[in-house]
Give the backbone structure.
Amino acid sequence: MRSVVITGTSSGIGRATAHLAIRNGARVFGSVRRPEDGARLAAEFGERFVPLVFDVRDEAAVAAEADRVRAMLAGERLSGLVNNAGVGIAGPVLHQPADEIREQIETNLLSLFWVTRAFAPLLGTDRTLTGPPGRIVNMSSIGGKIGQPFAAAYVASKHGIEGFSEALRREMALYDIKVIIMGPALVDTPVWDKLARTIGRYAHTDYAAAFDRGVGMMVENGHRSGLPAESVAEAVWHALTTPRPRLRYSPARHPLIEQVGARSLPKRVLDWSMERFLGLKPERADTRSGGA
């Protein structure tokens, strides 16, 4: 029986991935921040779901739960680690509260260091354990390739995941542990409902209209055009189980438009289109004599 650790399983992609893995016969150690979420998922998924209660930013708590997983594996290796936990909070760089910026960087990026170091021995760096080497799937996004206005902290964290994963992949070659990036485009998850509540938050700034327009567009497109979380879960499971996984997966509902097209456009063209749509071009004062 495969055993996998998945962080952030209370909802969205993490929950869908846990569900799919269990349906395929795996045992899932799923991280949640609240005990009640763990109890709810255990009741829903059955004995093959083992809740791990920790905040991925808490290095000591992560390490303690890794020790518990080691005991339950009884000398066997993990088949996979899915670094999925993440948070996205929109805001202009000049005005977003520092604690929100810090929360996104620490949850989305720094946590990968703590979680990976805690579970790497169980994936195969501890050569005393039995079984084939496990795999690591790190959850990036289209934001790991393209910078969306008003999502600088989120985008920075996802760009960081891309670089972290590339470096880690080369380090883990020593143990034959494969490292795979999952970079989906828009995904229809509850995150959009949380994002919608930020509309109007920066009404006191020069970004008021552009921010509300940008967030409104993201929320609408996320629900209307977003890929189901279950589709991303299928890509994650494929990356964990196929004999020769790709280095990076880019699931999308409309791959040519959302992934290939957006990433292949010249950056100046993307700048122009975003500035024009959001109204981010400055108003130019008439400098002619008399203002005429």
About this structure: The radius of gyration is 21 Å. Residues 98-125 form the longest helix (28 residues).
